[in-house]
Amino acid sequence: MLLNDYEKAVEIIKNSKKCIAFTGAGISVQSGIPPFRGKGGIWNKYDPKILDIDYFLENPKESWRKIKKIFYRYINKAEPNSAHFFLSKLEKKGFLKTVITQNIDGLHQKAGSINVIEFHGTAQKAVCMNCFEKYDISKISLDELPPICPKCWGLLKPDFVFFKEQIPKYALEQSLKHAQEADCVIIIGTSGEIMPASQIPVIAKQNNAKIIEINTEKTKYTETLSDILLKEKASLAGEKFLKYFE
Ligand code: ZN
């Protein structure tokens, strides 16, 4: 019997011992979250300098005003889609060790995923630039900008990685470890343009992992790494996959 690409992917996932997922903006587009780049992207409308750490520190009020508009208008209203639910289901069934996401929207957790590495941090928290205390964003008023640390009056910044900032050490170390140990990587909604995150599937492939790619277009992973490309919107692919894991 000939297997279609979904069935082949399901076989790989079910036979793997350590499968991980690597996700990007494309998984959240159908949840109503615009990507940064490309058609309808945030950077077509706004100047990326507001997320440049130096610019932010010098112009916190203006930067926050735009950040609030871009990230905090929709992010708490957004709901996970079938692709997020597919991954949380895989984890519950014991087929997925962890999700490594480049997204800051918290939708994997909202879908029920437990082991999530947020490579670029999260918009769900704010961090004080003075005492480094972290706060749930829902506990912080954004009526007056910029928001100030209730403990030390320092400037608060969204707890995601700005341009020229380092990737959180924990995320980097854990991602590297998972990438080295994985025997299967499910890539969803990322074309691998952003370093160093883009290296995660590359490292896994060097250690002979099978690569399943779900993207609407061919990417640079397709030719060099992917064993299977499912050319599909993330949510639709998630819906199809869910049927195999009921
Ligand atoms: Zn503080």
Description:
This protein is an alpha/beta fold and 246 residues long. It folds into two domains: 156 residues, TPP-binding domain (Rossmann fold, 3-Layer(aba) Sandwich); 67 residues, SIR2/SIRT2 'Small Domain'. Helices cover 32% and strands 17% of the residues. The chain contains nine helices and nine strands. The protein has a six-stranded parallel β-sheet, with helices on both faces. The chain has a three-stranded antiparallel β-sheet with strand order 5-4-6, with no helix packed on it. A hairpin with a 5-residue loop joins strand 4 and strand 5. Helix 4 runs parallel beside helix 9 and helix 6 packs parallel to helix 7. The longest helix is centred in the C-terminal third of the chain and has 13 residues. The mean pLDDT is 95. The site of zinc ion has 8 residues, from loops.
Q: Count the beta strands.
A: 9
Q: Helicity, in percent?
A: 25-40%
| Assigned CATH superfamily of the largest domain | TPP-binding domain
CATH class of the largest domain: Alpha Beta
CATH fold-level label of the largest domain: Rossmann fold
Ligand types = zinc ion
Radius of gyration: 18 Å
For the largest beta-sheet, the strand count, sense and barrel status come to: 6 strands, parallel
